């Protein structure tokens, strides 16, 4: 989300050989094409997303794995917060006649992505943006750390979802923002917090004779093949997940919907596509995950994938 809708970054235009022609056509229809600003949101996709969430009465939870705002600029973050939380005035529209995810009859949990941490609105961005932590404090209050997101219970089975922010620490961005703008890194401190939180949550339920299944949610996709978007030191994260018996990871970032990609050892990674990026060459997607838990173990995750604009 951004304060200005439906602008696009020139680099995102596909196919590349026709990028100049596409840029000209977009400019003729009133859309901004930038080289130094990231793409913003598609209005129709946001409307579809809000309508879909409002219409699905069986949703237990809405999980957003980051890049909620186009940049960490306060105006962009405020626009994103309005979409997430502005009260409905009827249906899926707010009192400002804009789509709102708050119309859904399900709790919303989220974590930040690298876009939410961008300090500047122009490439190469850089980080130091704290507006997200301020504006989204009721959803994410731990800064660049790990947090409990949700506990779901059905028929005596528990599912816990815990999130971690592996965005680059602020000194890393400032040292070399050009090469690191799309990357994350598995911080030992954040990973330790995530593992400790997982253990404490399990122990708390174990004292009540309950064995929960656990999912970890992060923004960056482990083993991403795009060097510019990679999660640095992801082997730390995958080894920790294996050691802690967390075999299912939900993530985003790459805009590549994969449901799921090949397992990494025993670890399955479910990567979400972008829900609302304007002009996305891969389209905009939402994913419904039906998670079956038996005796504290996830035995199956069934995925229903919808392309927004085609629901």
Description of the molecule:
It is a single chain. By secondary structure, the chain is an alpha/beta fold. The chain has eight helices and 15 strands. The strands form six sheets. It has a five-stranded mixed β-sheet with strand order 7-8-10-12-13. It has a two-stranded parallel ribbon with strand order 1-2. A two-stranded parallel sheet has the order 3-6. The mean pLDDT is 85.
Q: Key terms for this structure?
A:
5-stranded mixed sheet, 23% strand, single chain, Transcription Regulator spoIIAA, alpha/beta, two-stranded parallel ribbon
CATH superfamily: GpdQ, beta-strand dimerisation domain
The end-to-end span amounts to 21 Å
Strand order of the largest sheet: 7-8-10-12-13
Output the CATH class name: Alpha Beta
Mean pLDDT: 85
Classify the fold: give the CATH topology: Transcription Regulator spoIIAA
